[in-house]
Amino acid sequence: xxxxxxxxxxxxxxxxxxxxxxxxHQVSVYNRTPGRASELIGLGxxxxxxxxxxxxxxxxxxxMISNDDAIRQVYWGESGVFAAxxxxxxxxxxxxxxxxxxxxxxxxxEGLGASFLDAPVTGSKPAAEGGTLVxxxxxxxxxxxxVQDILFAMGRKVIPMGASGSGATxxxxxxxxxxxxxxxxxxxxxxxxxxGIDGAAFIELVQSGGAASRTAELKGPKILEDNxxxxxxxxxxxxxxxxxxxxxxxxxxxxxxxxxxxxLFQVGDAMGLGALDMASVGKAYEQWIxxxxxxxx
Length: 297
Fold this sequence. Notes:
9 strands; 3-hydroxyisobutyrate dehydrogenase activity; HIBADH-related; 6-stranded parallel beta sheet; Rossmann fold; 2 domains; alpha/beta
């Protein structure tokens, strides 16, 4: 069985690495912030001291990191991944990054005789913990075929998107829809709440009609309960929308709805909500209408 290295033990990474361990894989782990690996060590993981050490001990390295700058540090920094890459290895990045960076990573890996897949995921914390993520993958079919079993240990579906960078592009397009859906949900809830309608009744209506969505299913109850424990943070959604805005500009695609959603998440971030779940963007509307979106105050 191939040895796996996992770098990045945040909200998503911990659940993904845990599923690899539960399914019998040998996993070494590293996180830039210490103290995140105790649960995984209990499941049999080996914690190592740097991306270099993890890469040197592995056949396949998976990264799940927060942003482009952090990815650059993990791969190209002192004691980084590329300093330890060997010919024949496969590197998989499941972060949400710019397609430009994904192409740079693929080119650097190829120059070292390794394969690189940009394989971001859809599905937030519950899907990471439950092993039901969906991977959208850019890179060679041969490289993907060699790690299908690894991806299916963490997810329920693997969708090839095309050449390197295609996974990253697909993820930004996908999260553009997620961000717009979230804002649409809270805006509709604001209209209903200001009009005196109970939020729970309104969410039941939404899920029974043409406005039904996975976003309403996941975020509606959180808003009703005023519970913004993180499944996917507001600051990460804003980061993704910013990346998508840059991508759409480069592709010359008009995106008025993306820009409106990005602005609303910027408002939420300015209110200090960045570390909360993305559903907390609804708090901006609560401030504007002077009441809770649940309609119960």
